[in-house]
Amino acid sequence: LSIANLIHHPFRIIQHTFEEIFAIYVGEWVHFNKLSFIFAAILCILPISIYFHAEKNRIPYLYFFLFIIILVPFSFNPIMNGSLPVRVFISAPIVMWSFLFMTTLITRNKYCDYMIISIASISFLDISYISSLNESLHWQVQKYDEHLASDIYTRINNVRSVPSKPEPVQFFGSMAPSPIYRKINHGNYDSYFTWDNGNPYRIIFYMNLIGYTDIYPASVEQCNKVRKEFASMPAMPSIGAVRLVDGIILVKLSNNYDRNC
Fold it and tell me: What residues does 170 pair with on adjacent strands?
């Protein structure tokens, strides 16, 4: 949340919000593939149907109602620096399906119904493609994390003083897989070793979750004590990227790192 930015830069936030509305509703292939134009068509059909079939005195009120519906998914944008939170993104397709449903209620014309069925079918195929691509990316990142965690844990066991003794671990840097699938959105399905710029707490929590329970995060004092040691260490996957220093296991994932202890 960033209410301060809304107060100090309201026009910039509003501009960013409307740019995102345009990208999602009118169509941006990065989000919705090459058939993104079909979503813009969905938004156009209902206003046209209202114009030709609704009572004339009710048209302005119906248009205002549609405008409000379109803006509902973006209610949090002003306090989120103009960006749509990923967790409320599901509301955008709900608006699309609602427009199609309301069009069928207003027109009651079989030819219009055929057109709506065609548009809905194309939309469904496009959404299925996007879902498949996202699941493939998720599978790749999941396997990457599992193999990297296994490699790191094996190296930890090779340097630890007493086998299976719980010891603090301090990570430095982040590692990301080379994607073989196009990434549809931002933030979803990131590797635990990349998420939040290589947050050591997230990484160790993930390793604990998949069974490596005898490691835990180093304290802030321990991190400050050994942080200078990372300067002389090579990064993964080089030999020497995992070391034991003063009872603390150090794991260097990359050379660049801007997180503090």
Answer: 250
